[in-house]
């Protein structure tokens, strides 16, 4: 780490200790959240999400396939993510980087573990045909906290996704219905800087943070997924504080998601 | 002749451009062209990795074109396919003549064109947006590159085919020009055309490029003022 | 570019401006073209092509597969190319390089867009079985203008390819017939050096050329594919001059192709 | 409550550890944890390849987690899958805080965790073994990292889920701590839990980690004496 | 090769010329061989093998698949190997290295060519269903002679592997039977150092050896596979001496394999 | 005994060799051996990429063996398969002893063997052609490497199996020797043979290699004169 980076780290850390942030937010405050549901017409469901300077588009598409042998009556959801190159040099050939994989898997886990998606209803013909739901996350701009922007984008895209109804013989009908979603799980990411917990870290904060934790909660106050990310460590008390924060902030963002969807469906 | 979307023979689809839309890119632009939605980001000049690609007399330019899985009717598998690789290559060839690459020896300029929603004409829209992103990145250029296609539909030469026309059409010529001098930097063609039809289509496409150029200038003025 | 390369560029450019070339060809003249049809016995059709020092072998093989759902009654053609390493250092792992992909796609496009191959006749059983035609280009030696050598090789190999006839039940018979080709599209590549147009650029010319264009034409005088390649630019007038040149030169090479095939089928 | 394998709520499965089992690694350890059989090897500090990953203020740490094709019920295809990549990443994050990476600028420490037989809890067992391998490699550390999971089965919070409990369970929290200070360096969770359940599970898992720590110390003493 | 490596090479070579080895073994003597059959319970068959400091685990798993069209009544065996990274730096991305591929293929060839595995008995339903036998070699520690440790591990794992019996309709029954193995082929690897032949080279010997040869023999005294490895050369007489040595040493190790299996099946 | 193509027990198939057939390679050769048609090209000595493969006491030698998709009965997918990788490796081992690699430290010599049409015996034919290409490239060598196989068909030991014999045969031994000293640099074997049969086959193959050597010398003389 060079000299300038060290000074930056010191500044951000000192601010955090005083309960302040470079963009004048409160430690427990999200940046402005902008959600545009149904942004991509070619997708069955989609969302454009801006979280401060972070921009993400999530699209939901279907395919028809055969079920896994051990769950013959259930459809499948699969999530993947693409990141743009950083400004810093990096190697680019080869398989998707581990950051993109972690991003996709944490978002996926939050939705999956909440049992939000009723995979039994994705079955078209038991043992033969099921829907495969693809959730694809395209990161446009990473100004920090990709996890929450992507998580919010994914659940919004799923929530407004439509699917064709199939008849009992496995043939498509003219009818269309929403994807069977039972819950709206929301991820909330909290960084630790100078012993303080900050929600929704901005990119410069991510660069200097000690560590971070992502907690996904549902509307019933359950915790459905957690992921401590990167290096560094938390004390037990800090984890529990983060869990409580995530429940509160998750609820706030859940309301914004539902409101955004409601507005477009009017 | 009436076109399926009611446009005139020499009429472009609706085009919207915005400069400087991405924070983490050194330069960026967004374009909506008909139902196309495309982002372009410029990263660099930066270190060349892997290093053996470095040239000591100019910057190494690489354009990557990619489509999101949800940008098309049938979900596209993530990752580069052969079509994307070819478009990346001809896009590099279309933009390189406009960039003062010799100003940045031993470095690399990377351009990413990401198609969020695809209608016909993504490569022309992408080149047009990438040019704005290059200006936004402060990379010195000989002029703007403006792109537009012309094609043959129902035996007529028309400008800027939309998806339906592309599917049913007889030929398509995507074109890019250095607008200041009308030099052609991108030219592809598929379909069946006579020599005269090619000439008519090229003329029409050049006119289209000039209209695109005006919109590019407007978008730059909106961002940077006059 | 080093000093020697600069001198080379200057020499070739000055020659071109005077209407001359290092190998004493006319600007509008191809190098010697040698075509050996049916060079590879294990292929259903093949051709060895020498264009000056450039050497290419193209082989055609079939496989039987299922049709694409949207064109259930049509077979499929797929083209790929392999390039040898250059003398200059280059990275070699990873997927086929973009030069090989462009080469294969431009050759493929010329054949495909001319509607030469009657893909409906490649259907064996509608919706179930179709022929998949593989056109594989192996470049042995690149002394410039791989595109034309490969394009000539591909259409020659297809033109002399045989296929087994299938009966109505989708079973192979003893009968053999030629591949259903309706046209002989020929690619013609033209380089621009010092403001002059030169057909069939040799390797040293390619290294210094401003740009190049490849035009594929059929026997009816139609243009069926074009590709401006590499960096640099053309004026509109130059493009049209290239189109006219390509039509004339394409016809000359078409006659050589047909003559070569005729000789081996005697 | 009775657990399917008869253990008490706060009881670990049988665990066996051995330090220094591989000759060609710079440090190594083997762990049997229930039916898990896992090797960990440390390679380095060594040259960074590819070089652009080198950092001038600390070692570059990379953990690779992989399962043999025969380690699970259905044969797994060789090579990394997405789950393995994620586990490798969180394992790196779990171990990094314990290692004095700043002692080895411009070099690389590579940790390989190879699962020969998988039951539930491979990532905790792997982190536990990798810590021993780091000590065996003589790499200076701030303390040992000890890992253990707690979860929810039949509405009860229990320690160290075995495969059957993991399959039928309601939630699982793999945890790793720097045992000296009880700082948490790995924490993941899936399933459904209330806040109180999370707190109870974390407390239980920390106690489990402490037991694992004692076993790690014993294994080191067996190898190196007191 | 640096100075220390050169001295090491000289020492080992001089020792070999005197008929001695650094670990005091005879030139024709294997290191201690430890075999634990059925080491991995999740595998259908497995073995842990220690050959001096070299440690290998081999696991056998099955899958059910369709036969190759040209051998509709035969199952398939496929072998792969994973190597740990060396202490020396190496590039790691990309496909499995050529050392791992050679290792897997030489082990595979010894078993396959001996006709040990009765692939006809792996057929479940002719033309439709066959067993696919996967032999996976995981190298834990490479202290030299991976080939023999892996070969011994593979035949041991196959020898103690069980398979479910299928009825005539292709459905699994409750019955279990051993994999149909007719022979116990054993590989024996011999290094050439200073003109001497040394069996079972240790890692330091491998680093300085001129060349090596691997000979697989069966219990009837047949040679079923050979592979000269790495650079260097053999004289004809040396090859024949190696063949005779391999026959003797192979028989010794075969007895150890059978004894180890017998002990666990008691 | 009669062989399916009428050859005698110790008779090679027809072999044709030509040196210096490729312009862009630093050295090259073409061989027709029975129905095999194979090109070999030598590229280098050149810069080592990636650089960490460079050795400071000798050149890094890499042989790549590949078959075109149309070289065999059923179309082969382009790109390296495991068989090709192994043949590349043993070919490297067969040629390395003949090359003065120590003359070119920190550089790389790359040999490409491209099989256009495959009958049995491609690896021997490829090694034979690659040796000629090395000479053509002016790379100093200790002697020529000549290759030929012998095998067992219908319980008889015969030289140089053709495709039909290879398919039905009982064993095959591809061999390469440094012809000057008869040192064996390539030796593989599959099938079932007694010790005596191995010895007979090796003797026969060495005689075959010597005939191949004469043809290599003739091809070089044709190219370079006496």
The value of Rg of chain B in angstroms is 17 Å
Uncertain parts of chain A: 87-95
Name of the top-level CATH class of chain A? Alpha Beta
Which overall shape of chain A is indicated by the principal axes computed on the Cα atoms? elongated
Given the C-alpha coordinates, what overall shape of chain B results? globular
Measured between the Cα atoms of the first and last residue of chain A, the distance is 51 Å
Biggest chain-to-chain interface with counts: A-D, 39 and 37 residues
CATH architecture assignment of chain A: 2-Layer Sandwich
For the secondary structure, the number of strands of chain A is 12
Assembly type? heterohexamer
What does the main sheet of chain A amount to? 6 strands, mixed
Please outline the major beta sheet of chain B. Answer: 5 strands, mixed
Kindly name the structural category of chain A. alpha+beta
What is Rg of chain A? 20 Å
Which bin fits the share of residues in helices of chain B? 25-40%
The CATH topology of chain A: Ribosomal Protein S5, domain 2
Determine the number of helices of chain B (DSSP H or I, runs of at least 4 residues).
Answer: 4
Q: Which CATH-level-2 architecture of chain B?
A: 2-Layer Sandwich
Number of strands of chain B: 9
């Amino acid at each position: 780490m060079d000299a300038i980076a060290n000074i930056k780290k010191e500044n951000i850390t000192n601010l955090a200790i005083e309960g302040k942030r470079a963009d004048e937010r409160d430690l427990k405050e999200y940046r402005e959240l902008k959600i545009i549901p149904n942004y991509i017409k070619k997708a069955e469901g989609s969302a454009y999400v801006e979280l401060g300077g972070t921009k993400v588009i999530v699209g939901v598409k279907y395919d028809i396939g055969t079920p896994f042998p051990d769950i013959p009556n259930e459809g499948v959801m699969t999530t993947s993510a693409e990141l743009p190159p950083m400004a810093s040099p990096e190697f680019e050939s080869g398989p998707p980087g581990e950051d993109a994989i972690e991003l996709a898997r944490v978002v996926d886990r939050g939705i999956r573990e909440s049992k939000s998606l009723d995979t039994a209803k994705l079955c078209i013909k038991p043992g033969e045909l099921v829907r495969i739901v693809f959730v694809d996350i395209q990161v446009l701009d990473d100004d920090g906290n990709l996890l929450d922007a992507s998580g919010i984008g994914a659940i919004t895209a799923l929530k407004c996704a439509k699917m064709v109804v199939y008849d009992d013989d496995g043939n498509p009908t003219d009818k269309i219905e929403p994807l069977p979603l039972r819950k709206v799980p929301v991820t909330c990411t909290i960084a630790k800087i100078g012993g303080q917990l900050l929600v929704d870290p901005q990119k410069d904060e991510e660069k200097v943070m000690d560590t971070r934790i992502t907690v996904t909660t549902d509307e019933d106050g359950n915790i459905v997924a957690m992921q401590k990310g990167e290096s560094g460590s938390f004390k037990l008390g800090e984890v529990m504080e983060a869990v409580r924060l995530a429940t509160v902030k998750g609820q706030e963002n859940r309301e914004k998601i539902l409101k955004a969807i409601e507005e477009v469906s009017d | 002749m009436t076109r399926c979307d009611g446009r005139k023979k020499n009429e472009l689809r609706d085009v919207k451009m915005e400069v400087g839309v991405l924070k983490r890119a050194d330069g960026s632009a967004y374009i909506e062209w008909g139902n196309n939605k495309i982002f372009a980001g410029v990263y660099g000049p930066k270190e060349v990795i892997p290093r053996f690609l470095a040239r000591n007399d100019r910057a190494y330019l690489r354009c990557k074109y990619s489509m999101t899985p949800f940008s098309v009717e049938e979900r596209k598998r993530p990752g580069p396919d052969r079509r994307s690789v070819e478009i990346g290559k001809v896009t590099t060839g279309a933009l390189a003549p406009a960039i003062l690459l010799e100003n940045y020896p031993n470095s690399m300029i990377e351009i990413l064109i990401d198609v969020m929603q695809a209608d016909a004409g993504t490569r022309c829209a992408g080149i047009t947006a990438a040019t704005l992103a290059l200006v936004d990145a402060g990379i010195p250029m000989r002029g703007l590159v403006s792109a537009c296609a012309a094609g043959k539909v129902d035996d007529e030469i028309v400008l800027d085919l939309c998806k339906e026309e592309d599917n049913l059409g007889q030929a398509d010529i995507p074109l890019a020009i250095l607008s200041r001098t009308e030099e052609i930097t991108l030219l592809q063609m598929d379909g069946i055309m006579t020599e005269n039809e090619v000439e008519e289509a090229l003329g029409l496409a050049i006119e289209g490029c000039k209209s695109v150029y005006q919109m590019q200038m407007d978008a730059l003025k909106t961002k940077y003022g006059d």
